[in-house]
Design goal:
Belongs to the D-isomer specific 2-hydroxyacid dehydrogenase family. Pfam families: 2-Hacid_dh (PF00389), 2-Hacid_dh_C (PF02826). Residues 6-317 form the D-isomer specific 2-hydroxyacid dehydrogenase catalytic domain. By secondary structure, this protein is α/β, with parallel strands linked by helices. It is built from 13 helices and 13 strands. Helices cover 38% and strands 20% of the residues. The protein has a six-stranded parallel beta sheet with strand order 7-6-10-11-12-13, with helices on both faces. The chain has a five-stranded parallel beta sheet with strand order 2-1-3-4-5, sandwiched between helices. Helix 1 (11-19) runs parallel beside helix 13 (297-315) and helix 5 packs across helix 8 (156-167).
Amino acid sequence: MKVLANDGISKSGIKALEKGGFEVITTKVAQEQVANYINTNDVKVILVRSATKVRKDIIDACPGLKIIGRGGVGMDNIDVAYAREKGLHVINTPASSSESVAELVFAHLFTGVRFLHDANRNMPLEGDTNFDGLKKAYANGIELRGKTLGIIGFGRIGQAAAKMALGLGMKVIAADKYVNEAVIRVDFYNGQFINVEIVTESLEDVIKHSDFITLHVPAQDGYVIDKEEFQLMKENVGIVNCARGGVINEVALIEALDEGKVLFAGLDVFENEPNPEIQILMHPKISLTPHIGAATEEAQDRIGTELAEQIISLLKNN
């Protein structure tokens, strides 16, 4: 049986699938050619990440397809309910990339509080002629320790971010419509650990009381953070979005940055992806990455292996 991994898959995932008797195709097929390719090559399983979309048109056009797999968490690029209605299995790997995304959140937080994004732009230009000027410009850094991190969306990734925050000595508060409380286990290298119970609060309270805010929510119909929410925030708040583009109003964000209300933003995802607005890309107070939250070798290994196990279990063991 053939598996088309259209957005790539780790070597460990390929190995596990081949061991299970599957042929893995990693040719990148253009979006408009996907349905035709699946039918021509008798593909039973399509695996995607965030680039390839599997909508109703592909589902209808490919009666031989049995499984749609998403390497990662969010499935907004797949018509999940429709696929399941048509008898297809839709699988994803919600736990595999949590730590990787949470680490990127902290890369953006550390970058923001020490102005690394701007220093890295300006040091190559002025480091040899204006060293003292730059030193002065970046002299007002802030420590994360002792500050309050507000986590909006307290699922697996939000809880992974909470662990890291607690390890750094931050206070953690969280908001989530569906999670009332969670016990966060913080593990240390020598087998010791601590458990910290966090009871979620209202979104408004989290926005009002946080020194830094990180979002971990799925794609939404409207903005989670809009003009009114920025007005509720503390002065000099830092905000990070490694979740989905479109959960923060980017126009309101730029206004809040320009007014000095928001100290910095860290963005891995964008409203207009893959063509982010130039005002976002050029802003000196925004730390930027190109949607790489889950893009670590370890996460991709876990994702590939977990997808392989699910596919083998669904198609070989039934």
